[in-house]
């Protein structure tokens, strides 16, 4: 008899099924970690906007919130940069949001945060200076 040095079909199926199940397991956990990071990012942005509003009210200065390519920048009396993960999309409408020393937003605006098919909006209303969170 000849000595074959190849693999049997059963061995190939077992090895490929082990590799396939490992890849599915890893992909599931990556999506789960991204979801947790998305929720933490939303909370961070929301708390930073609330803090900017309060600081503007007590410092008698303007605070501006603006979106850049990889981060959200809050500056004025305080300076904060929030790094945006590469799998999250952030849009601020209009281009900048302002808080004034009158404990009110100077203009209405929305921060829209999108991940996968999920969209979260943080709306800033002028005059009453409400900051609403829509998930």
Descriptive report:
It is a single chain. The strands form two sheets. This protein has a four-stranded antiparallel β-sheet with strand order 3-2-1-5, with helices on one face. A four-stranded antiparallel β-sheet has the order 4-6-7-8, covered by helices on one side. 38% of the residues lie in helices and 31% in strands. The N and C termini lie far apart (69 Å). It is of the alpha+beta class and 135 residues long. It has one helix at 9-59, and strands at residues 63-67, 71-75, 79-83, 89-93, 96-99, 109-115, 118-124, 131-134. The protein has one helix and eight strands; from the N terminus they run αββββββββ.
Short description:
By secondary structure, this protein is an alpha+beta fold. It has one helix at residues 9-59; strands at residues 63-67, 71-75, 79-83, 89-93, 96-99, 109-115, 118-124, 131-134. The chain has one helix and eight strands; from the N terminus they run αββββββββ.
- Residues in helices, as a percent range: 25-40%
- Main beta sheet strand tally, sense and closure: 4 strands, antiparallel
Envelope shape? rod-shaped
Number of strands: 8
Helix-strand layout with pairing:
Elements: H1 9-59, E1 63-67, E2 71-75, E3 79-83, E4 89-93, E5 96-99, E6 109-115, E7 118-124, E8 131-134
Antiparallel strand pairs: 1-2, 1-5, 2-3, 4-6, 6-7, 7-8
């Amino acid at each position: 008899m000849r000595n074959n040095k190849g693999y049997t079909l059963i061995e190939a199926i077992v090895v490929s099924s082990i590799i396939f199940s490992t890849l599915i397991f890893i992909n599931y956990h990556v999506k789960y970690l991204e979801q947790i990071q998305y929720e933490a990012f939303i909370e961070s942005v929301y708390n930073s906007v609330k803090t900017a509003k309060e600081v503007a009210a007590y410092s008698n200065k303007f605070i501006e919130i603006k979106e850049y390519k990889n981060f959200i920048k809050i500056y004025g009396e305080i300076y904060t940069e929030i790094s945006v993960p590469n799998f999250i999309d952030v849009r601020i409408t209009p281009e900048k949001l302002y808080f004034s020393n009158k404990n009110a937003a100077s203009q209405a605006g929305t921060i829209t945060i999108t991940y996968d098919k999920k969209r979260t909006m943080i709306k800033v209303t002028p005059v009453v200076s409400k900051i609403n969170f829509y998930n």
